[in-house]
UniProtKB/TrEMBL annotation:
Pfam families: MFS_1
Transmembrane stretches, start-end: 42-65, 77-97, 109-132, 138-160, 169-190, 196-218, 230-250, 262-282, 303-323, 335-353, 365-387, 393-413, 425-450, 470-493
The protein, known as: MFS transporter
Domain Major facilitator superfamily (MFS) profile: 43-497
Family annotation (PROSITE patterns): MFS
One Gene Ontology term from the biological process aspect of the record: response to antibiotic
Length: 508
């Protein structure tokens, strides 16, 4: 099968994911990989199922929030912690979990994370008070971090042939790209038909099935042992720095960007993370060897992802809020309105993204996807107060196909250059930047939207007009973030040398 036209990023570096491997010398080839394609396919199904459960859980909550608030008596500020508790735990523990997966075994970490997530889902499902639900959501974030941090690492060690790996990454990316929209549909239906408790209880059979499948089909790996990288000081620095930083960002809406609390906690977070970088440069067994960031494709892909995910918060969450708060849709109708986006994202990511990456290269496909996403938010900037779904919203949902193009390409670039010993760490890093982008999107775009809405209400506008005006501002800023991501991808992901001429992939 033809190789993707991607070249190594620097002399002597590990070949980028998707480049032609030297026979017998693929750096991602793990000795414990299943021998046959059927075994690899089953392992991919298990990984995708586990990740789909995690992604669904992150989005089903968004449409059920009003019902949760009414039932448990959350205050408006307290309700945000149903999301924030999960986000803080998930985002701050990914790097640590990824490295521990490399050291202790990625299969073991995936099993443990899925078990913690499933048990926490049961606790969330039976929660009868705000405190119990927030605790359960924090524990869900812990389990999600443990499982998600190593999932890509397992995948890239299973699929070493470029064409097969591209298809596997497309399947994995589908769980993140379309899974969020599917979660909104499922969350709305379950909340309206039953109650909000079922959005968590539904995880139990999925989690148990994922555990049983993972135990049977995932390849056993012992890891390199704690002695190979048990950097306790580094772990404490990065976990504390990320947790404090994400906490600071999600509290911006309450504290303000220039408050003494925000600036003080932000400075402390930056100091902790700077200390972590210094520690990694000098430690004998670093938690995150800085060689992981050496390939330019890795650095660029992670920066692009922060901006892209932050911008698309406005699509995944603010559009759902617009449908309910401005147009008066129910939770179930909101989910169904978002369904076309899930369908086109799935069709593109599963159907054509791997072939397009093989023919045109991940960078070019990523740029095309980002251009479509700029169009999505550009259309939303002009959305009227009394929108017609077919003429005003359906084109937006269809253009979301750009996410199905961008995410598989970006995932491949984000995992480029990861050797077998660092695959879990690279996976954790890529997932960490995703959560940082989400936290920034929550803080920046929701704060801007709320401030604009308050200003319009003070000017005497109706509630629907004020809300729509706030969303317009958030969509415009999101479009600006995507334009910046496009420019970064154009500059940072450009190969320094002459790329191998692409061969036409089979089937195109």
């Amino acid at each position: 099968m033809p190789a993707t036209p991607v070249v190594s990023d620097s002399p002597g570096s590990t070949p980028l994911s998707g480049s032609t491997p030297l026979p017998g010398a693929d750096p991602l080839a793990g000795p414990a990989a299943p021998a046959g394609p059927r075994s690899r396919g089953l392992a991919l199904a298990v990984i995708a199922s586990g990740m789909l459960m995690i992604v669904l859980d992150g989005s089903v909550v968004t449409v059920a929030m009003p019902a949760v608030q009414r039932d448990l008596g959350f205050s408006p500020a307290g309700l945000s912690w149903v999301v924030n508790a999960y986000l803080i735990a998930f985002g701050s523990l990914l790097l640590l979990a990824g490295r521990l997966g490399d050291l202790l075994g990625r299969k073991r970490m995936f099993l443990a994370g899925t078990a913690v997530f499933t048990a926490a889902s049961l606790l969330a499902g039976v929660a009868g008070s705000p405190a119990v639900l927030v605790l359960a959501r924090f524990l869900q974030g812990v389990g999600s971090a443990m499982a998600a941090a190593v999932s890509l690492g397992i995948l890239v060690t299973l699929f070493v042939e470029p064409a097969e790996r591209a298809k596997a990454i497309a399947v994995f990316s589908f769980t993140g790209a379309a899974g969020a929209s599917i979660g909104q549909v499922l969350g709305g239906v379950l909340t309206d038909a039953l109650n909000w408790h079922w959005i968590f209880i539904i995880n139990l059979p999925i989690g148990l099935a994922a555990l049983a499948g993972a135990k049977l089909v995932l390849p056993a790996d012992k890891g390199s042992g704690l002695a190979a990288g048990a950097d306790v000081i580094g772990a404490l620095l990065v976990t504390a720095g990320l947790m404090l930083g994400i906490y600071t960002v999600v509290k911006v809406g309450e504290q303000g960007w220039t408050s003494a609390r925000t600036l003080g906690l932000g400075a402390l977070s930056v100091a902790l993370l700077a200390g972590f970088v210094v520690r990694q440069a000098t430690a004998r067994t670093p938690l995150m060897p800085l060689r992981v960031l050496r390939p330019r494709g890795v650095r660029g892909a992670n920066l692009v992802q922060v901006l892209m995910v932050a911008a698309l918060f406005s699509f995944q969450v603010l559009v759902a809020l617009y449908l309910q708060q401005v147009l008066g849709y129910s939770a179930a109708r909101t989910g169904l309105a978002m369904l076309p986006a899930a369908v086109v994202i799935g069709a593109v990511s599963l159907g054509v993204s791997a072939r397009l990456n093989a023919r045109f290269g991940e960078r070019n496909v990523l740029l095309a996807g980002l251009a479509l996403l700029v169009g999505v938010l550009g259309l939303l900037v002009r959305i009227p107060v009394h929108a017609d779904y077919v003429t005003d919203l359906l084109p937006v949902m269809l253009l979301a196909a750009g996410f199905g193009l961008a995410l598989p390409a970006l995932t491949t670039l984000g995992m480029s250059g990861a050797g077998a010993d660092d695959a879990g760490l690279a996976s954790g890093l890529f997932n960490t930047t995703q959560q940082i982008g989400m936290a920034l999107g929550v803080a920046v775009l929701s704060t801007l939207a709320a401030s604009r809405t308050d200003g319009l209400l003070a000017d005497g506008r109706s509630r629907a007009e004020a809300l729509t005006g706030g969303y317009h501002l958030a969509f415009a800023v999101g479009a600006g973030l995507l334009v910046t991501a496009f420019v970064l991808a154009l500059v940072m992901l450009r190969a320094p040398g002459k790329a191998t001429a692409p061969a036409a992939p089979q089937g195109l």
